[in-house]
Structures are given as structure tokens and as C-alpha cells.
Amino acid sequence: MTEPVDVGALVEQARTAAAAARSTEDIRAVAATYTGKKSVLAEVGRSLGGLEPDARKELGRTLHEARGTIEEVIEARRAAIAAEELAREMSEARIDLTEFIPGSIPAPALRGHQHLVSQTQAALEDVFVGMGFEVAEGPEIETDWFNFGALNIPPSHPARGMWDTFYLNLGAPETVLLRTHTSPVQVHLMEAAVVGGDLPIHAVMPGRCYRRDTPDARHLAVFHQIEGLVVDKGITFADLAGTIEVFTTAYFGPDIHARLRPAYFPFTEPSAEFEVTCTICRGAGCRTCSQTGWIELGGCGMVDPAVFAAVGIDADEWTGFAFGFGIDRCAQMRHQIPDMRALTENDIRFLRQF
Fold first, then answer.
1. Which phi and psi angles does 284 have, rounded to 5°?
2. What is the pLDDT of residue 106?
3. pLDDT of 343 above 70
4. pTM score, two decimals?
């Protein structure tokens, strides 16, 4: 270069140019002019090789400080411009709700709600909690021991024919299946109570179950049950019958009652099936109740001593009862749904009613 460059004046020029920048493109141009490869600073830097060592050292230091100052100024202005542009974009995107004329705002999108079965489960839990029960849950994939063995249903027992079971091939050393009822949760609870010394037990256990049933007006292959278990001292069959009746009138209404019929279940003795007044025909007889006026809701009975023995409970000291029934069928009865398959058909017209 033929004439010396006033580096201080160059820094002031950069300050002025940066302050005048109004956009990201403007500040990018300032950076290219004062710190880029073709800037004055870069040109001066390339001329250092022709100077005496002392002069080269002094000028190099000055150029380095000037570049640092200019870059700080440019970066500060770049950040300020970015903030201004963001604020401007947000202001432009803001919707002025006062511009809408009353009645011109589009109706909000329809929101979904809980399925009828989920609503029914929550309502059942509330009823039993009000009766002093706790709510417990268990796994849907069970071993043969929890689903059958501990419930007094050993391999090859004829009673296994009562449950059309889905078995799983998971490569496990023991047989694994999709639970056919929520009774396995009883076994888990009793085992835990024995280990933790938490007897007595007053609990209900809702959940999904699986059976290879053919769907019809009262059956589904994937359905929901709620199981009840009471283990205490001095429990009798009268306590069971009273609990079923109190639940029935509390959930279905004072004009709906329950009755017990002798039945057989491997894990209860004596056993019974309990039915409720058909809520569709109010006991007069219809297609849903097969003209009987009653609908089977579930099974119940006194816990078999063999089940107590399997989990380590002394049957001479403790007694108890268990019951289980379908949540889907409760929904069907309470809302007078003739065909249970409507619960799984996903017809929006049907689902919107609940």
C-alpha cells in the first residue's frame, strides 16, 4: 500500500455502518466490507510482509485489536436485528380477535371423550370404593400358574374347557397366555398380603380379558371384567349375597335386584352365578335376556380352601368370598344396549350418545 491506513478511523466507519444496518442482509454486507476476505483490514494484513519487523509487529497488533472490536460491534448489531425481526414477525402474525363479527367465528372442533366402557369402569370403581373396597390392577399377560394353577385348575382339569384361552409363544420356560379372567390378580394380592402381613383384603380389580369367544349380543372376544375379593375373619356366604345386592341397587337403581343360582367354579366353594333384573325389559322378557327377565352378570362364591393353600393363607383362620362380572355387560344393562357388539363397532353415532 502506498499510503498508511488510519485503523482507528476504519473502526469508527464500521461502527457507523453497523448502526445504520436495518436487516440481516444489511449487517451481513457490513461484515463483508470490514472483516471479509476482500476488506480493507484484510488488504492491510496482506501488506505486513513488506514492513520492518518492529513496524510489522506493531501494525499486526493494531489490526488484530481493530478486527476484534469491529466483530463485536457487528455481532451485537446482528443480535439486535434478529430480535427486532422476530418481534415484527410475531406482531404481524397476531390475530386481532376484535376484528371478528359476533357469530362469524367458526365453531370449535368437536372434542372426544372417554369410551362408554371406560366411563362404566370408573363408575363401578366409585361404587365399590364407596363400599370400602380398594382398587388394584395386574398384568394382562400371565403364566399358567396365576391364571389356572393357583386357582385350583391344574393341567388337564376339565374346568379349563370353560375358558377358551389364547396361548402365547414367547419362548418362556413356562406356559404364558393372555389372561382369561381377572382372577389372577386375586392370587397376586393374596401372595403379597401373606409376604407383607397385609391381611385382611377388601379389593376390586378391573381390567381387560381375552377369550376365543364368538361375538354375539352378550359376548366379546376381548372384554373387560371387574373382580372382587374379600379375605377376613368370619366372612360368610351371607356377606357375599349382601354385597352383590348392595352393589346392584347402587349401580343400576333401586328397582333392579340380584339373585344367585347354584353354579360351579374351581376356585370357589360353594359357587353361584348372579343375575340382575333385565334392564331392557325390566323383567318382562326380551331377546337380550332370552325371555327370562334376568341377565347373568357374573360368578361368585366363597374362596376355596385349595386357593388359600396355594398362596399360603390359613383357611382355618381366614375366610373370604370372590366375585367377578363383565364391565361391558354392565354398560349394556345400564344403558339398555340390545347388542354388546355395538361397543366395538366404532360407530360415532352410537358413541356420541354417552
1. -80, -25
2. 63
3. yes
4. 0.64
